[in-house]
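Re: [help] complex structure
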Amino acid sequence: MAKTIVLEEYAKQRSKRIGLFKKYGVTAIFLLPYLAAFITFFVIPLFYGIYISLTNFQYGKPGIETFNSFMWFKMIFDKSYMPGIYNSFWLAFVHTIMFSVIMVPIAILLPLGLAILVNQKPPGFKLFRALIYMPSIVPLTASGTIFTLLFMSKSQHGVLAEFFGIDTMWFIDTWFSFNLFGQPVEIAYAWIPIFFMCLWGGWGGNFIILSAGLQNVPKHLYEASDIDGCSTWRKILHVTIPGIKPQLVLCLFTTILGYLGLYGQNYVLSGGGPSIAAIASMPAGGKTSTLMYFIQDLVANNLQFKSSLYGLGAAASLVFALFAGIISGIQMYLTREKKTGTKISEAYNKWHEIR
Amino acid sequence: MVLALMSTTLALVMVGCNKNKNDNKNDPTNTDSIVDDLPRDENGNFDVSLLENVQLNMWSVIGQPDQETLLALVKEFNKQFAGMIEIKVTSVGHYDYYNALDSTYANDYGNFPDVCFMHNEKNIEYALKGYFYPLDELIEKTGVGIDFANAYDNIEKTTMYDGKHYGIPVDAHGYLTQIRQDIIKKNGLGFDGNTRFIPQSYEEYQTLLEGLRAKANSGELWVRNINLDQDHSWYQLKDGNAKLDAAAQATVSNFYPAFFHSQESDNLTALYVNGGTLADANDNVTFAQNEGLTKYVTDLVERYNARLYGDAGNKEAAFPTGQVVMFSEGPWMVANTYDIWWNNKQLSTAGKLGVTEEDAADPVYTNPYTVARPYYMAAEGAPAETASKWYGNGHVITVTKKVTSLQKAAAALIFAEWLTQGQKDSGDYNLTDWCKAGHLPAWKNVYESDSYKAAAEKSITLTAMGDPAEIIALESSKYATTLIAGLTTAVGDVQAQLLSADGCTVDKAIQTLLATAQSTQEAINLLKLGIK
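Output below.
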C-alpha cells in the first residue's frame, strides 16, 4: 500500500535533508580525500605497527606471526632480558636528547637573529636572504659530501686538515666521555660535523618562516616603543618576539621534532659510528647513533635484522612516538596562547556580542 | 574511538588476507609448487628442443668490467637456444642486490627473478629464507646433466645445506696482494738471492716489511713513480724535499711498506688458514677464540705502531708513486690497472721519462706491478691442511621459488649447465671465457682443461690465484651476514683505533675483538628470537 505523505511534511523533510547536506555534506565531501589518505597512510599503519610490535612478525612473510607476550617491549625496558638491545636503545636515546638540547635553541636563535638583521633591510638584504636560504635547497647527500670533504683526515686530504692543519680524526676520535647512571657515554668528535651540517642545512627553513613573521609585526608598535624611548634590544624583546610568537612556536615545534628524529645527517657523515665494541653488532651500536638510527637499522639498514626483527623496530618506533609526543605536548602546553590582557577583553566583547 | 576500531579491524583483515600467502615459499625444502609441465617426446623423454620460448628473468650481481663478459655469454646462450630459451639479465649492483631481493620478495613478488646469479656466501642464508629451490630433485626430474662430482668440494659446500644443493657453483676468487716487485728488487730485499719478490710465508713477509722500513728510515730506499707519463727515474727517499712533496711523491714520512689490509677478505683468510671458524654448528660465535686471528689483529697493531703498515690515504694513488709497496684488493684491480697504467710500455722504453737501459732490459723493472695470494697469513701453529690455503668467495646460480613450472626450472638448469659445463665446438669450456675475467672455475674438468690452462698462462690474476682446490670458502650459515659483519667490524674498529689520537695497544685490540664477538653472539641470539 502506497504511503501517503502530506505535502507539508515532504517539504519539511526535504528542506531538512538539504539543510543537513549543506551543513555537513559539503564538509564531508571536502574532507573525504584527506580522510581517506589519513586513514590509509597514517591510521592503518599506526595500528598495524602496534599489531606488529606485539608479534614475531617477519618482513615479507605476513600472516604467520603469533603474539609474543610483549617481548620487544621487554627488551627495550628490561636490561636483564637482552642487555645489548637495552644498552644500544638507551644510549641512542641519550644521544638524541643531548643533541636536541644543544641543537634546538641554536637552530631557532641563529635564524631569528639573521631574520631580525635582514629585516632591518640593509643594502643587499635580498642577496643575503637568498644566500642564507640557499643551503636549504642542497640535497642531504650533496651537503653530506661537502661536509665529508671538509672533515676528512689529513691522509685523505680533508679541507680543514690541509688548509688549517687541524689533524683531528673527526670520524674516529672520541671527544670526551662521562658516566651516566653508571654507564659510560663516549661523545665522538663526529658530532661536530653533524652539528654544523644540521645547522647549515637547517637554518634556511626557520629563517624564512621567521622573516615572514617579522613582516607582519605592526609598525605602530615600534613607533609607540620609540616614543616610549625603548632601546633596540627592548624593542626586539618586547615587540618583535611577541609579535612573531606564532611563527616561533611553529619553528620550535618542527625543529624539536626534526632533531628528535635525526638520522640523515649522521647516516651520510658517520654511518652512526665510530662503533662501540660492546654493542657493535646491535642496532645503533655506534657513538653517533640516535633513536631513529636504531629503528632504521632494524627495518632498513641491516638485512638480517630487517628480515626478522620488524617487531622490535615497530616497538621502538612506538616508544619513540610516545616520547616525541610527550615532548611536543609539553612544548605546546608551555607555548599555548594564554588569555591575558587584550585577549581577555576580546573574549569578553565576543561573548557580549553573542549575548 | 570509532576510527581506532575501524583501523584495527582493517589492519587485522589485512593480516588475515595475507594469511598463508607465503606458506609454501617459507619451507626451504619444498618443491611442491613446481607443476610438471615438461614437454616430452613419444618415448616420454624431455629434450631442450621441445621447449618453446621459455623466458627467464635473471638478476646478476656482477658489476663492471665483468658484466660485459657475462652479458656476452648470455647473448651467446640465447643465440644457441633461440626459440627455446631466452635469458633476460637484470644487472643489480652488489650494493643493492640483496636489499632489492628482500624488498621484491616481500612487496613485489611478481617481479622477483626466476634465476639469481649471486655471491655464494649468501646462498644458504637466502635459501633458508625460502627464496630458492633445492636443486637435486629438479635435476633428477628434468634430467639436465649436472654432475656435482666434477665440482670442487671446497667451493661446492657453500651451496649445500642438510645434504641438498641450493645453487650451482660457478667460480671462486679471493683478494690478492698487489706488490711493487721493482722496489723490492732494486733494494735487494727479494728472496732466494734477490730472485723472488713474493713473500711465501709469515716470516718472509715480516722480514720484507721490516727491511723496507729500515731502508726508508735510513734514507737508503730506492723508489720511483710508475704512473703513466710520470718521471720513472729512481730516487732515494728523503724528507724535506719540496719538489717531491709538491709532486705527491714518496717521502720518508709518507712511506709505508704496506697499506692496511682490506677489512673483509683478509680477515677471513687469517681466520680460516689458522683453522678457525666464524661460528660452530650451534651458532656460537667462535672467531675470537682463534689464536691465528688474534695474532693477525695484534700484528695489525704492532706493525702499524712500528710504521710497517700505514694509512697512505688513497692506496691506488699511493701504490704507483712508491709510497706503498703492498696492498690488498680484489682480482678486479688487475684488470683495471695491470697493462694500461702500472706496467705501461713507457717503462720498457729506455732514454725517456728517466728510464735507463738497465731498467728497460729488466723484466722486473718493466713489469713492476705483480699480484700474489696472501701466503703470509698462516701464523705459527696453523694446521697443515689449511696453512697454505686462502679464503675466497665466488658466484652461484640459483633457481628461485618464483618459478612454478618445471619447464622454466629445466631452462634455468640448462643455462647453468651450459655456463659451467658447456663446451664449444672447439672443446673449450664456456666457463673458461668467464674465468678470463679473473675467476677460478668451481669445476675440476674446466680447471684441468687445456683451454683454461692456456688462459691461465696469459693471465697474471689466474696464475696468482692458482688452484681452486686451495680456496677455503665460507662456512654455510643462516647468519652469514651477521657473522661476517661482526668480524669485519672488530678488525675495522682496531684499525680505526690505530688512526685515533689515543692510538691502540695490543691489549685494547684483543678487548675489541672479544667484545665485538660477544656483541655478535648477542645479535645472533636476537635473530634467533625473530627467525622462526
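The first strand of chain A starts at residue 174 and ends at 180.
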